[in-house]
Structure formats: C-alpha cells, structure tokens
Specification:
- The complex is a heterodimer of chains A (240) and B (320).
- Chain A has 240 residues and is an alpha/beta fold.
- In chain A, 37% of the residues lie in helices and 26% in strands.
- Chain A has helices spanning 45-53, 75-81, 98-108, 118-128, 144-157, 174-188, 200-206, 224-229, 231-238, and strands at 5-16, 19-30, 34-38, 60-65, 68-69, 83-86, 162-166, 192-196, 209-214, 217-222.
- A 6-stranded mixed sheet of chain A has the order 6-7-8-3-9-10, sandwiched between helices. Chain A has a 4-stranded antiparallel sheet with strand order 2-1-4-5, with helices on one face.
- In chain A, α3 (98-108) crosses α4 (118-128), α3 packs parallel to α5 (144-157) and α4 (118-128) crosses α5.
- The longest helix of chain A is centred in the C-terminal third of the chain and has 15 residues, at 174-188.
- Chain A starts with a strand and ends with a helix.
- Chain B has 320 residues and is mainly α.
- Chain B contains 14 helices and 4 strands.
- Chain B has helices spanning 3-26, 29-54, 63-80, 84-106, 111-131, 133-136, 163-185, 188-198, 200-204, 210-236, 246-259, 266-284, 288-302, 306-314, and strands spanning 142-143, 150-153, 156-159, 238-239.
- In chain B, the strands form 2 sheets. Chain B has a two-stranded antiparallel ribbon with strand order 1-4.
- In chain B, α2 (29-54) packs across α11, α3 packs across α10 and α11 (246-259) crosses α12 (266-284).
- The longest helix of chain B is centred in the C-terminal third of the chain and has 27 residues, at 210-236.
- The radius of gyration of chain B is 19 Å and the shape is globular.
- Classes of the chains: A alpha/beta (240), B mainly alpha (320).
- The A-B interface holds A 53, 55, 74-76, 79-80, 85, 87, 91-96, 100, 103-105, 107-110, 118, 154, 158 and B 188, 191-192, 194-195, 198-199, 201-210.
Chain lengths: 240, 320
C-alpha cells in the first residue's frame, strides 16, 4: 500500500479545555485504501475524523488532502473537494422522501459527474445500497437498517474521493452487517474508505490497514494481522 | 413532485389568480377595498413564508422590511416628488439592501437568538421612524398628496385613487410574487432551503454553504416584504410608524401559520381568514382580538400545519 498519499495530518491536535482529545497525530492515508480506526471508548476517534471532515477546527497542526492544505477550510468546502462523512448517529431528512434525501446530497457534492443529472446520480446511489424500491417512502418511517443504508447512499451521491464512515454498523443486525460489508467492498473499488468501527470482525474483514488510537495518540498501525498480535493494543483493550 | 403534479399545481395557482380577477366584478365596494388590502398584505406574508415556511427561520422583525419599502417609497414621493414607479423601485431596493445588511449580522444566530436579534433590529427601525419625526411625522404619519398618485406608463395614465386600478395592481403584484416563489421553491435553491429547514448540520456536511443560502432566502424574503410595503403606501397613500411596530411582524407570522407555513398559497389564505375574522368579530365586540385568539387556539389544536398544510398532509399531496 505504498500508493499515492491522499490525506495526511501533521502534528494534529485538538483539546477541549484541559482534555487533549487528539494530540500530535501524524497520520497518512493512501489512495484506494480501506483504513479502519479503532480504539477504546474516548480514545479520540470521532474527534479525529471530525478534524478531517472539518466539523471541528484543530488546536494546532495541519490536514493535507490531495496535496493541498485544507486545515482552514470549512466543512462544506471539504465535502465539495471530495471528503464525504456519514454520521455515527443517523442524520437524514426524516420528513422527506428517500429519493429527495439522496437528491439533496447529489446536488450538494462538488464532484459533478459530467453529463449525469442530479436525479440520475441520486438514483444510482440509491440503487447501489439497494433502496431503489423505497424511493418514494418517507425516510423517517423506514426501518433503522434502511435509514443507515440511506445515510451511506447520501455519502455515495456526493461521489466522494474519501468516504468516512463513522460507526456504520452500529445498531444493525448480523445479516444486515454482512450485507453492509459487501457494500463497503464495492465502494472501495471507487473511493478510499476510512472506517471508524467497534465491531472487530467487521474491521478484520474489511480493513487493509488499521490505526489504533488511545488517549488521543496513535498507539499502533499496521495490517490486521500485525494489530491482532500487538501486545500494546491488547493491553489498551484488555487493561494491563 | 412528479410532472403531472406540477401541472396540477400550476393550474391551481392560475385558477386562484383568475378567481381573484373575477371577484372584483362581484364584490361590493367595501369588500373590494378589503380584498385589495388583503392581496398586498398577502405578498408581505408570502415573503415572510420564504424564510419561515421554507427555510425554517423564525423572524420577529419582518415589519422592518415592510416598513423599509413603505418609507423608502413614501418619503421619496412625499419629499422628493419622485414618480410612483421610481418610488416603488426604491422601496424594493431598500428592502434588498436592508435585508442583506441585517442578514449578515443576524444569521450568525439561529433559533431563539435569531428571533430576538431580528426583533431588536426591528425595534431600532421602529424607533428610528419616531426619532426622525421631521421627515416621517412619526405616529401621525404622512398622507401622500393626490397629485402624486397618478403616473404615465407608455402614455397610459394610471390613477391610483381609482379602486379598480388599485385592485388590479395589487393582483398583479400578488401574481408576480406567486410566480417568483414558485420558481424559487422548485429550483435547486428551493431544495437547499428545505434541506436547511429539515436538518441544517447534515446539509452542511453535504457540501452546502448554509450561511450563504440562508442569506439568499432572507434577501428574497425581505425584498418581497418591502415590495408589499412600497405597494401599500403607494396604493393607500399613507405612511406612519404603526406599520413598523412588532404587531406587523406578528401579523406576517400569524397569516403564515394560519394558512400553512411552507405552502405557497398558505399566507394568502391566512391573510384572508385573519382579516375577516377580525373584521366580523369587531362588529360584535371591542374585544375582537379575543375571538381572533380563540380561532388561533382551535387551529393550533386541530390544524397544527395550518389550513392548507393540513389539507396537503391529509388529502391533496400535490398542493403547492
């Protein structure tokens, strides 16, 4: 995976009062990778990806995407450049039809697929998560699993270069998780995927590489096999 | 909304305008005048609805935009003897500029803070109309001279003291407003407005500059409100501080709530109903606002989405 670096952070830190949620993180993500970020609760995973997506500003350090410094860009600008973020807690437009949800996303993304209309791109995104038959349903009235899929479809409709999935399998049933893993593999053919996930079988199955965060710092990084064998990681998870 | 639904919606809007046109031949004098006022006030409420109903921002200060149009048009006619069309254009421009400037500041807040900030700005505007009494004559106001109320358009003399002319100008303004709002709501901007209303944080994370979009909504809203104010002073020849009071901000909100926030014709229906509820109630009692209050309570209890909002939800899904 010595591919071109898509996203890089240098000395990235964010503190809330006296709490160093993320401190001095140097992180590099190669193009085309599926990378998982894991770590115990409170390790700073969500804060870290919020710094990448622009929902939070860093206290210090830089974020570089496709070679340019995006540390100062607001979230919506980063989305237009190709960084899509799906929410940990499902955040859709519950009162609007499913298709309209995805159309809003297709219209908002900056990566305009030349030629394809908003409706076409929305239809494709909806079909790729298998919700095409539910296009007319009110989004908030669908089952939770379908809402999670809609959330991913909205991310896909942005036609992202980097898709950040924040705890995507949370609350899904085992069979839904299996389908979901298949979906992520498909997405990985077109985009780089950054996955924050608690479910270790999912991580082991999907990730090319894993980054372990603990107390806001990178504890370890490597292939799933490396991480599984790492003593420090075991200690962080199991307590020493 | 499918193509067939859109066609139905457009036909309905055309039918409403046609009915209003025919009404002028049927209505007795008093109701003829009332209808003229209602149509102008409906434009104000429709402008308000762009921000409140479609974008989800509750302003308590829209009287200032109405008053911006009212005073800009009224004062230029009264003091500078400008022609009616020029004064109207000035009123509209005053609304656009004031909503842009106030929007840049007020839109840094949301929710309750936005309500308070807009109300404060509106109070400043109201007090300004009292403070500059040399020009505005404050509460007492100014009556436009009859001579200033006629003008030529391409050689055709237009006399604003003529009720038929006033009715049709009000109708034309209403029709133009309906067309503008229909166009905006069914554009990409309209989709973005509704997205912000439904879930602003998500909308930001889908690549939208929500601040810029809200500012656009506020400018459209404020400009339409000002157009209504400018038309009001030019048609009825009176400008006074009352129009800048919070009462007028609340009226726009009530018309919109009553008729149905986020429906195109809701503010018109709301203005019509509210006007006649108060009109009929005041024949029987001086406590007419009490009856208006009761009507509102009934609506809140049984028609939470307003009259047209409820109709759309339960029966006619394609209602614009």
């Amino acid at each position: 995976m010595a591919a071109v670096t898509l996203l890089e952070t240098k000395d990235l830190s964010r503190s809330f009062g006296g709490l160093h949620a993320v401190s001095n993180v140097d992180f590099a993500l190669g193009e085309g990778e599926v990378r998982a970020i894991i770590g115990p609760n409170g390790a700073g995973k969500t804060t870290f990806v919020n710094l990448l997506s622009g929902r939070l500003r860093p206290s210090s350090g830089t974020v570089t995407f496709e070679g340019s410094d995006i540390s100062g860009l607001p979230a919506f600008e980063r989305v237009r450049r190709g960084i899509a973020y799906t929410f940990q807690i499902t955040s859709i437009y519950p009162n609007l039809p499913t298709l309209e949800n995805v159309m809003i996303a297709a219209q908002g993304g900056g990566h305009k697929d030349a030629g394809a209309s908003i409706a076409e791109r929305a239809g494709q995104a909806l079909a790729s998560v298998g919700l095409q038959d539910r296009a007319g349903e009110t989004a908030g009235e669908m089952a939770y699993g379908h809402q999670r899929l809609l959330e991913v479809a909205m991310g896909l409709a942005l036609d992202p270069t980097l898709l950040i999935l924040d705890e995507p399998t949370q609350g899904l049933s085992d069979s839904e998780i299996e389908d979901f893993c298949g979906l992520v593999k498909e997405i990985a053919n077109k985009a780089t995927v950054l996955l924050i996930e608690h479910n270790m079988p999912v991580v082991m199955q999907l990730a090319d590489r894993i980054t372990v965060l603990n107390f806001g710092e990178i504890l370890a990084e490597g292939t799933p096999e490396d991480i599984r064998a790492d003593r420090q990681v075991q200690a962080a998870y199991l307590g020493s | 909304m499918s193509g067939a639904d859109r066609t139905k919606a457009v036909l309905l809007l055309c039918a409403v305008i046609a009915v209003l046109f025919v009404l002028q031949f049927l209505l007795p004098e008093y109701h003829h005048l009332s209808m003229t006022r209602i149509m102008v006030l409906a434009v104000f409420a429709m402008g308000y609805n762009v921000l409140f109903g479609y974008t989800g921002l509750l302003s308590l200060g829209h009287a200032m935009f109405f008053a911006a149009g009212l005073y800009a048009a009224g004062l230029t006619v009264y003091h500078l003897e400008w022609s009616v069309p020029l004064a109207f254009a000035t009123g509209v421009a005053a609304g656009a500029v004031s909503s842009l400037v106030i929007g840049v500041v007020a839109l840094r807040t949301t929710g309750v803070s936005f309500m308070i900030v807009t109300m404060m700005f509106a109070q400043v505007a109201y007090l300004a109309t009292l403070y500059f009494t040399t020009y505005t004559r404050g509460d007492e106001g100014l009556v436009l001279p009859t001579a200033a109320r006629s003008f030529d358009v391409f050689g055709v003399a237009v006399d604003l003291t003529n009720p038929v002319v006033r009715y049709n100008i009000a109708l034309a303004l209403l029709a133009a407003t309906i067309a503008i709002i229909y166009k905006v709501v069914h554009s990409e901007t309209g989709r973005a407005l509704i997205a912000i209303r439904e879930n602003e944080p998500r909308t930001q994370m889908l690549g939208y500059n929500t601040f810029a979009i809200k500012l656009k909504a506020l400018v459209i809203s404020g400009t339409l409100s000002a157009a209504s104010g400018a038309a009001y002073v030019l048609l009825f020849a009176y400008v006074g501080s009352t129009f800048a009071t919070i009462q007028y901000s609340i009226d726009a909100l009530l018309y919109t709530l009553l008729g149905g926030a986020g429906t195109l014709l809701g503010p018109l229906a709301g203005a019509l109903m509210m006007f006649y509820v108060i009109d009929i109630a005041s024949e029987y009692t001086v406590a007419y606002l009490l009856i208006a209050g009761l009507v509102l309570i009934v609506l809140v209890l049984f028609f939470q989405k307003g009259v047209l909002g409820t109709i759309r939800e339960r029966w006619i899904r394609w209602l614009p």
